[in-house]
UniProtKB/TrEMBL annotation:
GO terms for biological process: L-methionine salvage from methylthioadenosine. Pfam families: Aldolase_II, IF-2B. Keywords: Amino-acid biosynthesis, Isomerase, Lyase, Metal-binding, Methionine biosynthesis, Zinc. This is Methylthioribose-1-phosphate isomerase.
C-alpha cells in the first residue's frame, strides 16, 4: 500500500477495495456518484476520515458531470452525505467542498485534493500527540496495547489515527505487543488492522472481541487506543460497535482509554451522545459468514454499526491540536459522587463535610484532579487559571503561581469568603481569590472555575460589555433555552477591583448567567458543584469555538 489509500487519478477516485482484504489487494476505480455511494455504504471505503475525503471527491465528480447545474450537484451532494449517517466526517467533507461550488467544478476538485493532502499531516500530528500521552500515562517499558476496528492508512487515507499512534510508539521501540480485536461482525480488526500491522512489522495478536476484557483483567493490557466516527461537544464518542464495552472494562481495571481522531470528527453542533443517530446494518452481516448461514433462516437481529461511549469513560480525546477532552476529572468526580464514606477528620475540621460534588465531600485531591484535566486540555496553561470550592464561610482554592498540570492536594489554601484572607495552607492563595469570593458573596454558588480556554479568551478580546449567544443547543447547559448575554469585565492589574465590579454586577442582577468573561483573560463559571461549574465553562468555551468557526454567535 502506498502513502495514501485514496487517490485522484485521471478523473476518478482510486482506492483499495477494503472488502477484498486480506485475500487480495484490489484497486477500486470510482467515476460516478452512484459508485461513491455504493463504495461507502458497502464498506469498500470505510473509516471516518477516508469517507470524508472520498465523499468530497464524490461532490467533485458531480460538479464535473453537471457543470453550472448547482441544484443537481447540491442534490447529489446530499445523497452522498446520507450514505452513512453516524460518521460526521462524511457530511463535513461534503459541506466543505460544496462551499467552493460557486467558483466552479475545478475549485471543488482542488478543495477535495487539498483535503487529501491535509489528512496525512493531520493524522500524523494527532498520532504523535497520542503517543506522547501514552508514554506519560503508562509504564516506562515496551507496552502491551489493545485496539479495536481499523484506524490505519485504510481508514484515514494516510498514516492513521489510533493505529498511527501505535506506529509512532513502535518507531520509538515502545511496543511489545498489540492486541487486535477481530471486530465483529465484519472483522475489520482481523481483515484490515492485522494486515496493516503485519505490513508494518509491528508485533500483534488477534483476539476475539469478547476476550478483550479478560486480557485487561489479567494484566496483559497497558493502554487501549481507538478511533472515532463522531465526538460530540460533551466528549461522547461514537465509534465501531464494541468500543463502549472496551471503555467500561478499561475503566474497571484502571487502564487508560484514549480516543485519537482528527478535529473534523468533533461535532460541536451536537451537545451530547444521546443525540447521535446510530446506523443499523443488515441482518446478513450477523446471520451469515462468507456467504454461509450461521443462524436459522428468518432469525431477527440487532446490528448497530456503532455505539456511544460517555465522556466519563474516556481518559482523553486527542486530535492534531493535542488533548481536547479529558475524562480523568469526570471519572474522579463520579467516584466521589458514588462514595458514601464519611468525611475524613481533616476535611471535616476544615468544613468540607458539606458536599460540593454530590453525596461525598469535595477534597483538595478532587480540585487538583480537575485542574490537571483542564491543564491537559490547554485551558490552564502554565500557572494560569484557578478553582475553588466553598464550605460554609470559607473556600478551598488553588495556590498561586503553581503549574496546574502538576497540582496536588498540598497546593490548596483555605480562605475566608468574607474578606478573601487565607486561613490555612502553606501556599499563597490564587491572585484571583477576590473574584471567587465575590461570586460566593453574591450568589449561592458552591464552586467556581476560572480557565484561560483559547476560543473564549479570543472572543472576549475587544468585546463590548456583553456577548450575546442565541440558538445554540449548548445554552441548555447554562440554564437558558434560547438567548444569553454573557457579561465582559475589563481586565485590571488590580484584581480586587475586578472582584468588586463582579460582585456589584451580580448583586444588581440576581438573574445573571452563571458565567462571565474577563476581557482577554478567559472564563469564570460557577455552580452548585465543582462538576457543574466545570461543565458550564465547557459549554461556554464550546459556543465560543463554534462562533470562531462560523463567525456567528447567533444562529
Amino acid at each position: 500500500m502506498g502513502e495514501s489509500s485514496v487517490r485522484w487519478v485521471d478523473g476518478a477516485v482510486v482506492t483499495i477495495d477494503q472488502r477484498a482484504l486480506p485475500g487480495a489487494v484490489r484497486e477500486l476505480r470510482i467515476t460516478t456518484v452512484n459508485e461513491v455511494i455504493d463504495a461507502i455504504s458497502t464498506l469498500a471505503v470505510r473509516g471516518a476520515p477516508a469517507i470524508g475525503v472520498t465523499g468530497a471527491f464524490g461532490v467533485a465528480l458531480a460538479a464535473l458531470a453537471h457543470p453550472g447545474d448547482t441544484a443537481k450537484v447540491t442534490a447529489e451532494a446530499a445523497r452522498i452525505a446520507a450514505a452513512r449517517p453516524t460518521a460526521v466526517n462524511l457530511a463535513w467533507g461534503v459541506r466543505r467542498v460544496l462551499e467552493k461550488l460557486p467558483l466552479g467544478a475545478q475549485a471543488v476538485l482542488d478543495e477535495a485534493t487539498a483535503m487529501l493532502a491535509e489528512d496525512g499531516r493531520v493524522n500524523r500530528a494527532a498520532a504523535t500527540h497520542a503517543a506522547d500521552l501514552v508514554r506519560r500515562l503508562c509504564p516506562d517499558r515496551p507496552l502491551r496495547l489493545l485496539t479495536h476496528c481499523n484506524t490505519g492508512n485504510l481508514a484515514t487515507t494516510a498514516f492513521g489515527t489510533a493505529l498511527g499512534a501505535i506506529r509512532v510508539l513502535a518507531e520509538r521501540g515502545a511496543v511489545e505487543n498489540v492486541f487486535v480485536d477481530e471486530t465483529r461482525p465484519l472483522l475489520q480488526g482481523a481483515r484490515l488492522t492485522a494486515w496493516e500491522l503485519a505490513e508494518a512489522g509491528i508485533p500483534h495478536r488477534l483476539t476475539i472481541d469478547a476476550a478483550a476484557a479478560w486480557a485487561m483483567a489479567t494484566g496483559q493490557v497497558d493502554c487501549v487506543l481507538v478511533g472515532a466516527d463522531r465526538i460530540t461537544a460533551d466528549g461522547s464518542v461514537a465509534n465501531k460497535i464494541g468500543t463502549y464495552g472496551l471503555a467500561v472494562a478499561a475503566h474497571r481495571h484502571g487502564i487508560p482509554f484514549l480516543v485519537v481522531a482528527p478535529e473534523s470528527t468533533r461535532d460541536l453542533r451536537t451537545a451530547t451522545g444521546a443525540e447521535i443517530v446510530v446506523e443499523e446494518r443488515g441482518a446478513a452481516e450477523i446471520t451469515h459468514v462468507g456467504g454461509v448461514a450461521t443462524a436459522p433462516e428468518g432469525t431477527a437481529v440487532f446490528n448497530p454499526a456503532f455505539d456511544v461511549t460517555p465522556p466519563d469513560l474516556v481518559t482523553a480525546v486527542v486530535t492534531e491540536n493535542g488533548v481536547v477532552h479529558s475524562g480523568d476529572a469526570v471519572a474522579e468526580e463520579r467516584r466521589i459522587e458514588t462514595t458514601r464514606d464519611a468525611p475524613t477528620e481533616d476535611n471535616a475540621a476544615a468544613g468540607y463535610g458539606a458536599c460540593a460534588l454530590g453525596r461525598a465531600p469535595t477534597t483538595a485531591d478532587d480540585i487538583a484532579a480537575v485542574a490537571r484535566s483542564l491543564y491537559a486540555r490547554g485551558w490552564m496553561p502554565g500557572t494560569a487559571g484557578n478553582i475553588s470550592v466553598r464550605a460554609g464561610e470559607s473556600a478551598l482554592i488553588t495556590g498561586s503561581g503553581l503549574a496546574k498540570g502538576e497540582l496536588t492536594a498540598a497546593d490548596m489554601v483555605t480562605v475566608n469568603v468574607a474578606d478573601s484572607q487565607p486561613v490555612s495552607g502553606t501556599r499563597r492563595p490564587s491572585a484571583e481569590t477576590t473574584v471567587h469570593t465575590a461570586v460566593y458573596r453574591a450568589t449561592d454558588a458552591r464552586a467556581v472555575v476560572h480557565v484561560h480556554s483559547p476560543h473564549a479568551t479570543a472572543q472576549s478580546v475587544g468585546a463590548p460589555e456583553s456577548l450575546r449567544f442565541t440558538g445554540y443547543e449548548l445554552l441548555k447547559g447554562l440554564g437558558v433555552a434560547d438567548t444569553i448575554d454573557v457579561p465582559v469585565f475589563a481586565n485590571h492589574a488590580d484584581v480586587a477591583r475586578i472582584g468588586v465590579e463582579i460582585e456589584c454586577h451580580l448583586a444588581e442582577r440576581p438573574d445573571a448567567p452563571p458565567v462571565l468573561f474577563i476581557a482577554g483573560h478567559g472564563i469564570t463559571a460557577w455552580g452548585a458543584s465543582l462538576a457543574q461549574a466545570r461543565d458550564r465553562a465547557e459549554c461556554l468555551e464550546a459556543m465560543c469555538e463554534l462562533a470562531t468557526l462560523t463567525g456567528r454567535r447567533e444562529i
